[in-house]
Amino acid sequence: MKKSILILFVGIFGIANAQIPTGYYDGTSGLTGYTLKTKLGQIITAGYSQHTYDELDGEYPKSDADKYYENDNTILDIYSENPIGPDPYNYTFGVKKCGNYAVEGDCYNKEHTVPQSLFNQKLPMRSDIHHVLPTDGKVNGYRSNYPFGKVANPSITSKNGSKLGPNATPGATYFGSVFEPINEFKGDIARCLLYFVTRYQTQLSSFSSGNILNTSNVSQGLVTWELNLLLLWHQQDPVSQKEIDRNNAAYSYQKNRNPYIDHPEWVTEVWGISPLAVDDAVFSKNLNIAPNPVRGNIINVTGDKDLKKFNKAFIYNMVGQNVQTIENPFQNGNTIQLNNLPKGVYILKTGELNTKFVVE
Question: Which of 117 and 332 is assigned the larger pLDDT?
C-alpha cells in the first residue's frame, strides 16, 4: 500500500549526454531562488538566435522525430503518442500540415504550451522552439488557450488519453476548463512553461495572465496553483532522453538551452517543492515496489502489465536527476539491484509507468 510521504533531498548527480557547452552556465554557482532564475534568464537570452515561425517546420525533423517509442522517425506528437502500444495515427514531417481539421489524425500544426494569445503572437515567443511543439491539430484545438491542470471528469478525451474538463487541481483558484496531458509527458510540459517564465521574465508584466502567467509577480512567473502543479509534474515525470536530445537540437538551432533539462535540480533551487508533492496514486498506478521502504539493495517490481516489454528502467532522485539506468530490467525476473543509493525518496520510471519508493 502506498503512503503519502514527505519529499527528501538526496545527493547531486549529473545527467548523461546533456552536452552543455563549457562555461554556458558560468555565474550560477552559489545562487538560489529568484536570483538564480534571473541569472538563468540572462544566460538563455544572451546569444539567442531568432527564427521565423515558419522556419520551425524545417527544424522539427531534427528535434521531434520519434526515436524513442516506435522509432520510426514519424512526428513525436505528445498529444497522440501511445507510449505502450500502437499510436492511433502518425504524421510524416511535411505531410498533412494543417489548414483545416475535423477529427484527430487530419493534420498537425504547432502547439504553443504558453498560448499565443497571452503575448499577442509576438516574436520571439511565437517561434521559440523550447515551448512550441508539433501536435495534432484537433487536440491542439481542444487544448485551445486553457491552462494545464488536473481533470477528474473529462468532457473530451483524446485517443491517447489526454483530457479536457473542469479544473480539479488541489488549491486552484480557477475552476474553468483545463487540459491534462498523459503522464508520460507531464514533466515535458512543466519544463516548457518553467523555461518560458525564465526566458521571458523581463517581459511578463506586459503579457496577459490567462490563469497561467503571473504578470504581477514576474519572479514567480506562474500563478500559484499552476506553478505548484507543474512542480509536481516535474518531480513525477523526470527528464527523459527525448528531452535531452531535443534540448541539444534546440541549442544548435537557436543557440539557447532549457536550463531545467540540463539541471533539473534548479527547479527546486528556484521554486522549492510543490506542496502537492506527495505520492499520487493516480500517477503511480499499475506499478508497485516491495519492500517499500527499502532497507537493502534489492527491490521487487510488479504491475498489471507485462513488464518485459520495457527495455529500460530509470531511477531518479527527487530533484529530477537520473541516478541509475537499468538495461532490460525485467527480462530475467522482476528484481532490480540498486546501486547503493543514499537514504531518500526516489522515482522508478519504466515506459509510461512511474512510482515512488523510499530508501532507508
Answer: 117
- C-alpha span between 314 and 311 (Å, rounded): 10
CA–CA separation, 134 and 94 (whole Å): 11
Q: How many CB atoms lie within 10 A of CB 307?
A: 20
Q: Report the pLDDT value the prediction gives residue 161, as an integer from 0 to 100.
A: 96
Q: How far apart are CA 159 and CA 321, in angstroms?
A: 31
- Residue whose C-alpha cell reads 523550447 in the numeric block: 130
The amino acid at 80: S
Q: Which residues pair with 358 in a beta bridge?
A: 345
Does the pLDDT at position 294 exceed 70?
A: yes
Please tell me whether residue 137 adopts helix, strand or coil conformation: helix
Question: At 267, which helix (H) or strand (E)?
Answer: helix 265-271
* In the predicted structure, residue 16 carries a pLDDT above the cut 50: no
Residue 329: closest CA among 318, 316, 347, 314: 314
Residue 169 phi, psi (nearest 5)? -70, 125
123 or 320: which carries more pLDDT confidence? 123
